[in-house]
Amino acid sequence: MKTVLIVDDEEFVRLGLKSLIDWKACGFQISYEADNGEDALTIIQNQKPDVVITDIRMPVLSGLELIEKVVNEIDSSPKFIIISGYDDFSYAQQAVRYGVSDYILKPIEKAEVESILIKLGKQIGEENEIEMLGAQVNTDNLFKRLISNVNSLELDKQSMRDLRIKEKNNFFYLLFEFFYIEDFEYSDIQISSVIQAVIQSTEMIPMYKHERGLYGMIVNSDDLISFENERALFFAEMKEKLYAHTNIELGIYAGDVVEELGKIKRSFSEAMYAKNFTFTNIQYQVFDYCQISFKELTYTELDERIYVLLMEHIENNNQKQIINLIEEIFHTFSEKYFAPVAVTASINRCIHGVVSTINTLKGDEKRLELLERMIHWHQVKLSPNEVKKLLIRFMLECGLYIVELRKQNAKGDIHIIKQYIDRHFCKQISLKSLSSEFYLNSVYLGQLFKKTYGIYFKDYLLELRLNEAKKQLRLTNKRVYEISSQVGFGSTDYFVTLFERKTGTTPTEYRNQTIKNQKNEEMI
């Protein structure tokens, strides 16, 4: 609410103005009163009201003299509205010369004053915004100079004041990053006011906006006095208050203390380095360079075994295993200090793998509701914890879709698979290799084969191989170990054992018996 000072030597005029106008509706409140120009000048100097409504003719200091003194002696002067009972052109001329906003003749009209106040309120708001933008540009330039300067940087006293910096003090750079920036609707001023409350400062806290949702500030060692100089307490309080105000998760990253402001670039670089540890503690999200400077980040992807296992769980739609494995993945990110670029590469590979499987099954990836959000998770700036939750939901969605695609494709595929087995049974094939070849779950494939052909896959494969072995024993002179290898058995002993179990004779006995039978037939 903007403030108003009413100046008039007649009390009934002041009372009349207070009761006549709907101040609140116009965006103002009467905060101060004076019955002479001298008292009014003191109030303006100390309290800085937004608008002064003054009579012209008053004792000690007239209205115009008051305006002249304010314009000449005070840097930031309020808006003036003159109320007079005299329609005097010379007064109006002087008022214009001093930049008076409006000149109202008595008797006062309610609608006229309210119209003027609404207009002034809008004008003050626009001017304040321009002033704040100008101040922010100046602050931004100071921050840029400080965090990009390699050598020591001297600042004038005004610049030091603009940054709330005291001489002979220690400093450190602090970054705080709001996640979910697509929903971020808070202004820099709102954020600054929350920090102001945490630090218990009487001034607005200058901040630098590195990018949307990421802010930086220079912290004086004095700011930690109320926290017994405990950085951890200070960070926890700031995180708690910012979250309470915005209801948005955030991370805090701090550089080490420097003794001179000219060295703040080092502390800034340390805070940026600490930001790389965001996936190493997805619950707490406070990273102090002093606590992590000795730790080395990992820039490689996950172990190949993880990708293979994840795809198996997804293709089998093992939901519990999917969840457990993704939990394990994020535990690995934390335990091995994965840098954000390594996390992004690892997650993108998981996404690419499952989408490739869906495309192979002739599925439409656009049917995946979470795909777009999953692909762009790093642009939205999700918190690490929310990234994990999103990845779990996405992979579970993919598992269900793959089951649906397999059911659609299964009837036609099983006959193609049988033809494939009939042609390639001599090779090393199994349900696992077939499931990989045809993108079907191995357990489901075995069940479907038995249901369709009335025989288990393993028995059917054995039957094909033994029939081929019998054929070669009858028609060729190949040795038993050669036939064993050529029909798909890795071990000759295993082949002989199975052959005898199924036929009641060894391969050699089978061959000899076949030759004997052929000779008997020839004799007849």
Describe this structure as you would to a colleague.
With 524 residues, the chain is of the alpha/beta class. The protein folds into three domains: 2-126, Response regulator (Rossmann fold, 3-Layer(aba) Sandwich), CATH 3.40.50.2300; 157-292, Reverse transcriptase/Diguanylate cyclase domain (Alpha-Beta Plaits, 2-Layer Sandwich), CATH 3.30.70.270; 411-523, Arc Repressor Mutant, subunit A (Orthogonal Bundle), CATH 1.10.10.60. Helices cover 59% and strands 10% of the residues. It has a five-stranded parallel β-sheet. The protein is elongated and about 150 Å long. The termini are far apart. The model has no long low-confidence stretch (mean pLDDT 85). This is AraC family transcriptional regulator. Residues 415-513 form the HTH araC/xylS-type domain. It is found in: Cytoplasm. GO terms for molecular function: DNA-binding transcription factor activity; sequence-specific DNA binding. Keywords: Cytoplasm, DNA-binding, Phosphoprotein, Transcription, Transcription regulation, Two-component regulatory system.
